[in-house]
Amino acid sequence: MKTVVEEIEEHIARVGTHPVYGYVHCLRVFALAEELAALEGISYDEEILRAAALLHDVGLYKAYALREPSDHAKRSAVVAGRILKDWDFPPQASQAVIEAIEHHPPGAPAGTASETVLLKDAVGLDYLGAIGISRMLAMVGTEEDVPDIRAAIWNAESLRRRIPDLLVLRSSKDLAAQRIREMDAFVEDLRYSTAKLKLL
C-alpha cells in the first residue's frame, strides 16, 4: 500500500510537466534540502519536507493556476492544503507543509521550522549554477519577462546577485558560491562568443 507522500508524488509527476518548475524541479529541491540537512546536521521530518518540496509550486500548474490567489506561494499553499486534506495527511503535519510552502520564495520571511528553512534555501539554490541558467533559458517565450535569450541571461544575472544574500544556512551560501562560479564562467564564454550578448 502506498503512503500519502507517494500518492502526492505520483500526482505531481502527472500534473507537474512544466520544464522550469515541474516535477523534476521538485525532485532536485528535495535532494538539495536533504543535502543541506546532512551538511548542517539538521534533523527534520522526511515526510513533511518531501511533501513540501513536491507541492511548493503546485499552484503554478495548469490544473490550478487560475483558481486561487495571484501570489504563487499563497496559491500553492491553498492548493496543497486541499490536496493534503483530500488524502488525509495528518493535520499538524499538513500545517507544517503549508508553512514551508508559504515561506519558500527567496525574499519571503524565513520561518523557523527546519523543513521551512531547508525548503527555502534549496529553492534558492535551484535558481543558481548551470541548472539556474538552464531553467531561465527554458522560460524564453513562455514568460512575459523572458521574451528572448538576452532577457533570460539578464534575469539569471539578477538572481545570481540577489539569491546569495537571501540564503539562511552557511552550507547554502557555500553551495551558492560554487554555483555562482559555474554561472560566471558560462556567461563570460557567452559574452565572448556573442559580442557582449549583441549577437544573441
Helix fraction by DSSP (H/I, runs of at least 4) = 55-70%
Rounded to an integer in angstroms, the radius of gyration calculated over CA atoms is 17 Å
Major β-sheet annotation: none
Name of the top-level CATH class of the largest domain: Mainly Alpha
CATH architecture of the largest domain: Orthogonal Bundle
Write the H/E string, N to C.
HHHHHHHHH
Strand content: under 5%
Task: State the helix count.
Answer: 9
> Alpha-carbon distance between the termini?
52 Å
Protein traits:
mainly alpha; Cyclin A, domain 1; 200 residues; globular
Characterization of the model:
This protein is mainly alpha-helical and 200 residues long. The chain has 2 domains: 1-109, Cyclin A, domain 1, CATH 1.10.472.50; 127-200. The chain is 66% helix and 0% strand. The protein is built from 9 helices and no strands. The protein has helices spanning 4-15, 23-40, 46-55, 72-86, 91-102, 114-125, 129-138, 149-166, 170-193. Helix 2 (23-40) packs antiparallel against helix 3 and helix 8 packs antiparallel against helix 9. 39% of the residues are buried. The model has no long low-confidence stretch (mean pLDDT 93).
